[in-house]
Design goal:
The protein is α/β, with parallel strands linked by helices. The protein has helices at residues 54-58, 67-78, 121-144, 179-186, 207-212, 233-253; strands spanning 2-6, 9-13, 21-24, 32-36, 81-85, 107-108, 111-112, 150-157, 160-161, 164-165, 170-173, 193-195, 219-226. It has a 7-stranded mixed sheet with strand order 3-5-4-8-13-11-12, sandwiched between helices. Strands 1-2 form a two-stranded antiparallel sheet. Strands 6-7 form a two-stranded antiparallel sheet. It comes from Tateyamaria armeniaca.
Length: 261
């Protein structure tokens, strides 16, 4: 795995295309399973960069800048397993089901994705089999290893989207099960924290929560952090510690324990 820097942010570029899901701290004692679906900007060589520009490949449309660093720091502090995708969301968005049009986007914000245009049903099934199914199955396997698992997905979002400035700093997202999200909102720090912002269920962003949490009755929540707040190592560590402490308060609120030996 290699790393480059873009505007002070590490861009994860995995060189081994055969390994498209990464599991860190597999034997962590916490019931929390952290998930980072948009951890990497890597596009496998055979896809020829999907025809997108270098600027697009470094931007938020290709991955969630800072999210993986925050997730890794939280994993270490919580002693929690972390499951992450090692390929760009432009190749396949692992937070979308195969039937979703934006699982393999032909356009993302201001950028066209020529390599995703005109795919046949067979092409799409091949992408699903190669990139999504192993991620989904490995995540399901790690969750199944735990008693009363808690699913927490970590994301970041751009402060300006389609020319519109976003004031929200942290979004706490949920689908029909809001138990953990409600507890987090009750225990929120003094930041601009909002429910289901800047995205929500209507935008199709709660797939992982539904697939791995709701179906089995597990506590679950999705955390979105504005990426200018986690643009360097120091701010990533600070945010990770804040989120970890906050998560602990919320889990106490709902009667769960973040770390069970």
């Amino acid at each position: 795995m290699a790393t480059t820097l873009s505007a002070g942010v590490a861009v994860i570029l995995h060189q081994d295309d055969s390994n498209i899901v990464e599991v860190s701290r597999r034997n962590g004692r916490s019931p929390i399973v952290l998930v980072c679906e948009h951890a990497s900007a890597h596009i496998p060589a055979d896809l020829k960069d999907l025809g997108v520009s270098a600027a697009a490949r470094r931007s938020h449309v290709a991955w969630d800048p800072g999210a993986m660093a925050v997730a890794r720091a939280m994993s270490q502090t919580l002693d929690a397993t972390l499951v992450s995708s090692t390929i760009s969301r432009l190749v396949y968005d692992c937070n979308r089901p195969p039937e979703a049009p934006d699982a393999i986007p032909v356009r993302s914000e201001a950028y066209d994705v020529p390599g995703n245009r005109g795919l046949t049903n067979a092409d799409r099934r091949a992408r699903v089999a190669r990139y999504y199914a192993p991620f989904r199955d490995r995540l399901a396997s790690e969750i199944a290893r735990r008693t009363d698992p808690i699913i927490v997905t970590i994301h970041s979002f751009t402060p300006v989207y389609n020319g519109q400035t976003r004031e929200v700093e942290i979004g706490i997202l949920h689908d029909s099960d809001s138990r953990l999200a409600d507890a987090m909102l009750r225990n929120a720090p003094r930041r601009d924290v909002r429910r289901n912002a800047p995205y929500g269920p209507k935008d199709g962003v709660t797939h992982t929560l539904k697939e791995h949490g709701l179906k089995h009755g597990h506590l679950n929540v999705m955390i979105e952090v504005r990426n200018d707040l986690i643009a360097d190592d120091a701010s990533q560590k600070t945010m990770a510690q804040m989120l970890t402490d906050w998560m602990g308060r919320a889990l106490q609120d709902v009667g769960a324990d973040a770390c069970k030996g």
